[in-house]
Write a structure and sequence with these properties.
By secondary structure, this protein is α+β, with helices and mostly antiparallel strands. Helix content is 50%, strand content 15%. The strands form three sheets. Strands 1-2-3-5-4 form a five-stranded antiparallel beta sheet, with helices on one face. The protein has a three-stranded antiparallel beta sheet with strand order 6-9-10, with helices on one face.
Length: 345
């Protein structure tokens, strides 16, 4: 029995023992970064999504994340339901497999293919609903903090300097490594401009958020949002940063062409319609925060150095797209802010 076959058998046994579910089929789903994910069909014809965690040591972080998802679902957000074990636990951790079990969303696709058309306002409305609900989370109430705090620019600059040294000192470099070195140099060259952009930001809202509202975690069915998945443990973050995660996604920016900016404007308008308490300053700051966050981030350029086993061909493609999109956004910031300002009036 291979390692994968053994894990499937363990998942099947856990479903029966901990959840009282008799699986007819357990199939691993390729997607998943920190977890192993499975599609489960039981003997009654119901579909489930099993998320297997790498070990018990992550429970302290993962359990609050599942609880946050339940909090959002109970408030009416489109979040798949998590099934409790026979013992009433949100995460099964009593056996060899640590896992959570969720309702499966059939015929849904992630937003990784880029937003377009009516998907823009649909995602905006869902993000607005989610942030409105999470503003009442007991872990932290919304507050205003200096916008410059959205990014640790000095720390990121130091990381880029170390990466340039590491890439440049390699005796033999492949094509991606040579490109990554040049990309790091291009990023470092604009840090002075990024610092000025951060300094010009007003106070922005910080509250409990999803934590990773990126395109892989937004599930779409047609032009509607089918579900939001993979919450992070509750932590106060900038709302403008989270909106930028989905609204300034590199794939939407590059593939959308001239339609991207009107699409983002529609996303923000729909966000405000369902979350009228949202501050104008936060929404207008989205493109600046998105631009600075992408350009100052070492991800995924650093993966080739820090975790080469994770540097797949698709991730290399994404690294190039993210770099190109961030520089393009930097060039279009004035135009983008003007369009958004008009759209939010």
């Amino acid at each position: 029995m291979t390692g994968s076959e053994e894990l499937v058998a363990l998942v099947a046994g856990t479903l029966s023992r901990a959840y009282g579910i008799q699986p007819a089929q357990v199939a691993q789903i390729p997607e998943g970064t920190n977890t192993r994910n499975f599609r489960v069909a039981d003997r009654d014809g119901c579909l489930w999504f099993a998320k297997v965690y790498p070990g018990h040591q992550l429970l302290e972080r993962e359990l609050p994340a599942v609880e946050l998802a339940e909090f959002a679902r109970e408030g009416g957000a489109p979040v798949p339901a998590v099934l409790r074990t026979r013992e009433g636990d949100l995460i099964e951790a009593r056996g060899r497999v640590v896992m959570s079990l969720w309702t499966y969303l059939p015929d849904a696709e992630t937003a990784e293919g880029a937003l377009a058309g009516e998907r823009w306002p649909a995602v905006g409305a869902t993000a607005g609903q989610l942030h409105r609900l999470l503003a009442d989370h007991p872990a932290a109430r919304p507050v205003q903090q200096p916008g410059a705090g959205v990014c640790d620019l000095p720390g990121n600059q130091a990381r880029f300097e170390r990466m340039i040294t590491s890439y440049g000192s390699r005796p033999e470099s492949g094509e991606f490594e040579r490109w990554a070195l040049e990309a790091c140099r291009e990023r470092l060259a604009v840090f002075g401009r990024l610092a000025k952009l951060l300094e010009a930001l007003p106070e922005l809202t910080v509250q409990i958020l999803h934590g990773d509202l990126a395109s892989p975690n937004v599930l779409l069915r047609g032009e509607k949002v089918a579900g939001i998945v993979d919450f992070q443990a509750p932590k106060a973050r900038y709302t403008a940063w989270e909106i930028a995660r989905i609204g300034c996604d590199p794939r939407s920016l590059l593939r959308g062409g001239e339609a991207w900016l009107p699409g983002l404007s529609r996303l923000l308008a729909a966000y405000r319609d369902v979350h009228p308490g949202a501050r104008w300053e936060d929404l207008l700051a989205v493109v600046v925060v998105g631009c600075v966050s992408m350009l100052a981030s070492t991800y995924p350029l650093a993966q080739h150095l820090d975790a080469p086993e994770e540097m797949t061909a698709p991730l290399e493609v994404y690294a190039r797209a993210r770099h190109e999109a961030a520089l393009m956004l930097l060039d279009r910031l004035d135009e983008a802010q003007e369009v958004l300002r008009d759209g939010l009036r």
